[in-house]
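Work package 3, deliverable 3.1, input record:
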Amino acid sequence: MISVYHYMILSAILFAIGSFGVLTRKNMIVIFMCIELMLNSVNLTFIALSRHLGNMDGQIFVFFVMTVAAAEAAVGLALIIAFYRNKESIEVDDFRLLKW
Amino acid sequence: MYSNLWLIPFFPLVGSIINGLFGKKIKNEKVIGGIATIAIFLSFLVSCQNFFRLLGDTEKVHQQILGSWMSIGILNVEWGFLLDPLSALMIMVVTGVGSLIHLYSIGYMHGETGFYRFFSYLNLFCFSMLMLVLGNNALVMFIGWEGVGLCSYLLIGYYFEKKSAGDAAKKAFVVNRIGDFGFLCGLFTLFWALGSKGVWTLNFVEISENAHLLQSGGLLVTVVTLCFFLGATGKSAQIPLYTWLPDAMEGPTPVSALIHAATMVTAGIYMIARMNILFAMSPTTMMVIAFVGAATALFAASIGFAQNDIKRVLAYSTVSQLGFMFMAMGVGAFTAGIFHLMTHAFFKACLFLGSGSVIHGMHHAYHHAHLHDDPQDMRNMGGLRKFMPITWITYLLSCLAIAGMPFFAGFFSKDEILWWTFASTRGSYLVWIIGTIAACMTAFYMFRSLYMTFHGEQRTDVRAKDHIPESPWVITLPLIILAGLATIAGFIGIPHAIDVAHVGNGIASFLDPVFGQAQQLHNIGIPEDLAHNVGLEIGLMCMSVVIGLIGIGGAYYMYMKKQELPAKFTGAFPGLHKAVFNKWYIDELYDFLFVNPCKKIGTFLWKGFDVCVVDGVVNGIGWVVKGLASGLRYTQSGFLHNYAMIMVVGVVVIVGYYIFG
């Protein structure tokens, strides 16, 4: 039987993978994908707990998160294209002008 | 009944605002000058109406309250005007002489840049002066008191592109402020002193009514009146604060005539006369005033001997004549002092305007000949009476008046003062002797200026010699009117001793409601046995005429007959001449005693306190913040992963805190 704990653990693993990816990878698109992974792990938590608690609020929240994620994807990809046009690269280490 | 008093200061204020705001656009000199002159002339008409109404009225003190100015607890100040014989006489002098000088200025200031500015200031000055004399309480008077100081500053500095003019303006302002400090101290002390007796007031009528609550001759009254007297010395150019007045001659000549001879400098006299009841209560203060006045009269007259600038001679003469008025105030001859104020306004305004006419002519001649000689230096003049007959005649009449020749205005007023210094219960022979000597010196230096300017051979540069014109009618008309007044105005104050036609002493009976009470209460007056000693009074009169004649004769002998004498004299006493020529080095002494120490304190506060302490604190805070920031900014590495790592660590810490904390 798959209980709510299994969902929680899966979600935690996905979140950890996502954040590890954000911290280690240099390719901007991969980082972006990792962020999506983190967002969706959170979505999974929301839905699992919503089901478990019999409360619809969590599911409604997921719609908001998906909307925001879609908007973020649009803006983020546009930024990446702009970066690429500027520097012929999407490695984050190439963009470090804003520092001391 | 007297409900149009407010119009008197109102007209010049409106004129000043119109010229000040729109004068630059109007441009037309006739319109600008016309507006200003008509404004002050309208005030003159209203003043005349009120004056003559008051003359026929039995009730002599009238107040018009326009409304409340401020009401703070026990202090209640109103916008109010006071018309009594004293202020009625003053508004007549201010608006009358003021109108003539406005008219004169149209001719004199012709073609100056900032013509509109001049007339705006001149009207503003008249407004302030009228507020000063009409105010029914000390604070309204103080508005005028400060206002005339400000206008004086603005007008002395009229040629502000000249450094000397700017300096003179600043000097006048600062010295006046010292006097104002005294005035305010006196006012506060008086307010508190009367208030502690239960009467919280600044109203002059109420002050006079309640003055008896203070102890007559007490320390408090003496302190209050001495503070007021300090204020008066500032405005009226007495020792020790007289030094600004001669420098004020940097302003245009009509300004010298209006402000520094006829009106503003009389503010101190007026203030003492207004509070005569307080001054009468303190014999000590009265004595101080009499001696300061006498000393100033003598001292300023001595400086007048050696000045070559025609306006400077007149400036020192003004200081000296103001000394006479203070002498009068000090011996309780309030009426005589105000009388002399009035006659002096006429003849001194005429003398100044006459000198202005001369300067105008000389300037014209030099301009014509493309020369840059000093048009005010009397050594460049001489023999001008051929070219400027009207100016000469009026100047001569005024000189006779100031020298106290019989039946000219100055004769009556000056003799009245000298008679009181001799005979009054508050009089003193020493003051009388000094006054008489000063009168002789006055006659000498005034006729010296007359001879050097209008008589003898002409010393003007040959190229400019024949191009000195007589001034236009706007200049000569005021001269003629003022000279006429200087000649006949004395007849309103014929002393009892020579009153053969029994017309009575008009000015004394007119001003009696203002001064009579104080004089009676404190036993100020001519003692009975002297009052009926007609022979003595006439004898003294003759003596002062003779002394005046000696002065004139001396001047004639030295500057007409034996013209080598002055040079011989200065050769014999080079040190004395140098000291007198340099005004007894008083300015240098003040620089040494007060101005330079003040500058040093200022420099210390600037370079020591401001730069080190104030700037140090501000800059120090900046340095500390900058130091902290220079350490912290290395966290801004530019590596995205650093920021992400910090965020993750932060989240872990916060979440950990909530779970395990």
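The two ends of chain A are 55 Å apart (CA to CA).
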